[in-house]
Design a protein that fits this description.
Layout: H1 9-22, H2 26-104, H3 107-116
Helix pairs in contact: 1-2
Length: 124
């Protein structure tokens, strides 16, 4: 196919530049510029597809982050509840130990504790 084209001064300068750098004629320089433009267009389409895939991946990862943050909150709440239960059990164990100490103590020691109070830790 033969085609005649009119070029702006800017495009003429570009064709002259390409022609002088590769040593080809004007027609070959224009053909190469068209091929290059087509290649760039293909690469641009690939880059846009990559961008779309990356945007989808970002959305997936953000959803995963949200899910993991919710799981973290749930586990933190469960841990806090477990710690409250452990604290309650520790208080109960302390109370039972004090009661056992009181029941094992002699009558004299019980009377002393009744008058002066039971110490935190029994000291003999």
């Amino acid at each position: 196919m033969r085609t005649s084209v009119s070029l702006s001064d800017e495009l003429v300068s570009y064709v002259d530049e390409v022609t002088s750098s590769v040593g080809e004629n004007n027609a070959e320089a224009i053909r190469e510029a068209i091929k290059h433009g087509r290649d760039v267009e293909g690469k641009l389409a690939e880059a846009e597809a990559d961008r779309d895939r990356l945007a989808d991946r970002v959305e997936e990862l953000e959803a995963e982050v949200d899910r993991l943050e919710a799981r973290n909150r749930d586990l933190t709440n469960q841990l806090a509840e477990s710690n409250r239960r452990i604290d309650g059990a520790a208080e109960l164990v302390k109370y039972v130990d004090e009661e056992q100490s009181y029941r094992r103590a002699s009558a004299v020691k019980r009377a002393k504790w009744w008058l002066f109070g039971m110490p935190d830790e029994e000291q003999d």
